[in-house]
Design goal:
- By secondary structure, this protein is α+β, with helices and mostly antiparallel strands.
- The protein has one domain.
- The chain has a 4-stranded antiparallel sheet with strand order 1-2-4-3.
- It is globular.
Length: 120
Amino acid sequence: MTEYNPKIIDIKTLEDAKNEIKKIGSDPLSIEIMAPKAISKVIKLENVILQDAIIIKQDMLSIGGEVAVPKHTFELHQKTGEILVIGTLKQLNELVKKIDRHYPRLKKIARELENVLKGM
């Protein structure tokens, strides 16, 4: 069974946010849009199937948060990648509820995110 290894990433400055988004390979043009939203809590998930990343991104955007994904995500050339889930604690908890309503793989991610959030 795949482990997604969710981790809290401590982002204190706008420069910290830009660097983390750059590290996962997001499109450089999107960094200026996403970085200001990262001054809250950021959780990194590893080995996410990129089709799941698209759903997680859509759900998080619907509640005012953000998910940074690799720039190739929507091309689906690679099967997995790292993503950064960016939001307030309220948004992150709401995301857990939203993705828990999907199929089993996303339910597993929801459980792992929930466990990380309990540790904050």
